[in-house]
């Protein structure tokens, strides 16, 4: 398995995997997510694969088939003037193809992104997990992540 920056040729696979993530999220929160859509369009993905501030990494097998991805965003902190300034790498989305799960792809992607964050001089690596996505939460906890803050809601 190789982990590398995504390229235009990976967009069909990225779109397919984005569909898998959306299906899971739509099942958990049908009040928020629209079934049979994806988070990003093809034109958006074409721009994103070239964006160094928001790199997309893919895990590919020996035949160069995409097994998973990590969409990342470099963020400058603070969000307010009462916080220490630092750089954060935010994992916007991480997915392993449903047919490749349990084979270490997610761990390899996560460790690669962690190494990239360190290389970029980031203070932290962050992400969000939707409540109800228990398998993802357990995976990230196994990777050493801890809850930083909790967003709460009241449906009106």
Structure description:
The protein has a five-stranded mixed β-sheet. The protein contains four helices and five strands; from the N terminus they run βααβββαβα. It has one domain (2-142): Gcn5-related N-acetyltransferase (GNAT) (Aminopeptidase), CATH 3.40.630.30. The termini are far apart. By secondary structure, it is of the alpha+beta class. β4 (86-96), α3 (105-119) and β5 form a beta-alpha-beta unit. It is globular.
Summarize the structure.
The protein is 31% helix and 23% strand.
What is Rg?
A: 16 Å
Provide the β-strand percentage band.
15-25%
Low-confidence stretches: none
CATH level 1 name:
Alpha Beta
Please tell me what the overall shape is. Answer: globular
Trace the largest sheet across and list its strands.
Answer: 1-2-3-4-5
- Helicity level, as a percent range? 25-40%
Fold-level CATH name? Aminopeptidase
The number of distinct structural domains comes to 1
Q: What's the N-to-C terminus distance?
A: 46 Å
The assigned CATH architecture is: 3-Layer(aba) Sandwich
Structural class of the secondary structure composition? Answer: alpha+beta
Q: What's the count of strands? A: 5
CATH homologous superfamily designation: Gcn5-related N-acetyltransferase (GNAT)
Mean of residue pLDDT values: 95
The H/E string reads: EHHEEEHEH
SS summary, helix count: 4
Largest sheet: 5 strands, mixed
């Amino acid at each position: 398995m190789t982990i590398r920056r995504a390229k235009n040729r990976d967009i069909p696979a990225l779109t397919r995997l984005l569909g898998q993530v959306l299906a899971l999220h739509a099942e958990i929160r049908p009040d928020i997510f629209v079934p049979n859509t994806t988070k990003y369009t093809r034109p958006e993905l074409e721009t994103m694969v070239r964006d160094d501030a928001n790199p997309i990494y893919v895990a590919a097998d020996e035949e160069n088939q995409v097994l998973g991805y990590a969409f990342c965003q470099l963020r400058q902190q603070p969000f307010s003037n009462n916080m220490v300034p630092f750089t954060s790498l935010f994992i916007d989305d991480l997915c392993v193809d449903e047919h490749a799960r349990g084979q270490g792809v997610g761990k390899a992607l996560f460790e690669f992104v962690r190494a990239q964050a360190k290389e970029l001089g980031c203070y932290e690596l962050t992400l969000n997990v939707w409540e109800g996505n228990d398998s993802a939460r357990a995976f990230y906890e196994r990777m050493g992540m801890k809850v930083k803050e909790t967003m709460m809601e009241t449906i009106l």
